[in-house]
């Protein structure tokens, strides 16, 4: 299939995307206002946003399909938490309107039913 993406290619692409997302979250956390609410939200988004990448990498190293699914589910939970904290920052009025739109889109991507869940990293022999 000319348009299909191999599991290995998908895993590598998604691995890079989650790492880039984590770096963008780190940059955002460093740029947040100093109000207590922003500090708390910043720490939470930092934890959740960087955990997506860490847990996806852990899923890629899974020793079984069951372990892969469990670890991938953790990554998806962290992505959902990241969406919540981004929405709170966005709707809380602490940042210019639209500043977080790209991050929100990227955070929601793995939560879509048709995204990466079907693609499994290649097995190691």
UniProtKB/TrEMBL annotation:
It holds the Pfam family 23S_rRNA_IVP. NCBIfam families: four helix bundle protein. InterPro entries: 23S_rRNA-intervening_sequence, 23S_rRNA_IVS_sf. Residues 106-125 are annotated as: Disordered. This is Four helix bundle protein. It comes from Hymenobacter swuensis DY53. It comes from the Bacteria.
């Amino acid at each position: 299939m000319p348009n299909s993406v191999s599991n290995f290619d998908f895993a590598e692409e998604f691995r890079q995307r989650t790492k880039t997302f984590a770096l963008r979250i780190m940059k955002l956390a460093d740029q947040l206002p100093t109000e207590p609410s922003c500090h708390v939200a910043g720490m939470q988004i930092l934890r959740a946003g960087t955990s997506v990448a860490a847990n996806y990498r852990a899923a890629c190293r899974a020793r079984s399909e069951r372990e892969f699914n469990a670890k991938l589910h953790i990554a998806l939970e962290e992505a959902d938490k990241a969406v919540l904290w981004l929405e709170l920052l966005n709707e809380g009025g602490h940042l210019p309107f639209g500043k977080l739109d790209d991050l929100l889109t990227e955070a929601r991507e793995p939560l879509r039913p048709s995204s990466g869940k079907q693609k499994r990293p290649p097995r190691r022999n």
